[in-house]
């Protein structure tokens, strides 16, 4: 298996170096030991233990229900497998908004109990006090702007964000604010490509896009979506690299048929 990067261990400093060198950052989500081990071995730079676990692992409609304990469970499983990638964990909805001390306690629990390397938080100006407080405890923070799924009930829809000048301006100033606060990077979700490129050009820290075009410093996708494990979710930005849902169903159907037709186990598969 060919590895495409020379860095033996990814840190937030390596990501900064990659931006300076113009080397793109590859990021994927993972929520469990087996998948995290596979994508780490494949050479992924950053693993996000995203609160999208609420959707793809637990079957909720939104990311809102997942709890801090559940995120710590997923992050701990991932950490047992990973040796090279930087592991970032989402602070779940309701554990940081509005109270910077609670935000600090939530972030400390994730770092202490899972051993992860950094946390991610959604929002700009509204959460900057919490971001600063967490950073002051020595915990690296990745920002997240644009379509922020924890605010889906405020947005009302998952359409592209910041297409109007006002929202684009706020996103630009939020990105700068997060950089000044000390975030090591910012995720930009579902915004026009031109805005993604503009923000990336203005910031010294790396931007990681999901539906933010090619002018950003790196890309992130939800692992289950890009492997084709999920079928219904099909936004324009999603490239499917496999069709594992069909492969898994096919394997299971063959297994069932082998049992029913007395083809499994055979002579060599018993004691
Ligand atoms: O939770 C998640 O998977 C995310 C990515 C979509 C960026 O936040």
Verbal overview:
The protein is α/β, with parallel strands linked by helices. It folds into two domains: 12-240, TIM Barrel; 243-271, no CATH class. The protein contains eleven helices and eight strands. It has an eight-stranded parallel beta barrel, surrounded by seven helices. 3-methyl-2-oxobutanoic acid is lined by residues 29, 48, 50-52, 90, 187, 189, 210, 220, 222.
SSE succession: HEHEHHEHEHEHHEHEEHH
Q: How many domains make up the 3D coordinates? A: 2
Structural class: alpha/beta
How many distinct beta strands? 8
* CA(first)-CA(last) distance: 36 Å
Remind me, CATH topology of the largest domain?
TIM Barrel
| Shape annotation | globular
Provide the CATH architecture of the largest domain. Alpha-Beta Barrel
Beta-sheet strand percentage?
5-15%
Rg from alpha-carbon coordinates: 20 Å
- CATH fourth-tier homologous superfamily of the largest domain: Phosphoenolpyruvate-binding domains
């Amino acid at each position: 298996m060919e590895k495409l990067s020379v860095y033996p261990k990814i840190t937030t400093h390596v990501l900064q170096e990659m931006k300076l060198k113009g080397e793109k950052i590859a990021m994927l989500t993972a929520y469990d030991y087996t998948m995290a081990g596979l994508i780490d071995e494949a050479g992924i730079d950053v693993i996000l233990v995203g609160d999208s676990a609420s959707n793809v692992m637990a079957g909720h409609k939104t990311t809102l229900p997942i709890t801090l304990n559940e995120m710590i469970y997923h992050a701990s499983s991932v950490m047992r497998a990973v040796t090279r990638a930087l592991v970032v964990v989402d602070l779940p909805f309701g554990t940081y908004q509005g109270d910077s001390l609670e935000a600090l306690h939530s972030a400390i629990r994730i770092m202490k109990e899972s051993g992860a390397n950094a946390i991610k938080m959604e929002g700009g100006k509204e959460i900057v006090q919490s971001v600063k407080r967490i950073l002051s405890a020595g915990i690296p923070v990745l920002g997240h702007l644009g379509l922020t799924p924890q605010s889906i009930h405020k947005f009302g829809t998952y359409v592209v964000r910041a297409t109007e000048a006002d929202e684009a301006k706020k996103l630009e100033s939020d990105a700068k604010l997060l950089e000044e606060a000390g975030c090591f990077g910012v995720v930009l979700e579902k915004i026009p490509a031109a805005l993604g490129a503009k923000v990336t050009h203005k910031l010294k820290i790396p931007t990681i896009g999901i539906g933010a075009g090619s002018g950003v410093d790196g890309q992130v996708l939800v692992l289950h979506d890009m492997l084709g494990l999920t079928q219904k979710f099909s936004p324009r930005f999603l490239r499917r690299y496999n069709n594992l849902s069909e492969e898994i169903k096919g394997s299971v159907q063959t297994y069932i048929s082998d049992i029913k037709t007395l083809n499994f186990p055979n002579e060599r598969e018993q004691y």
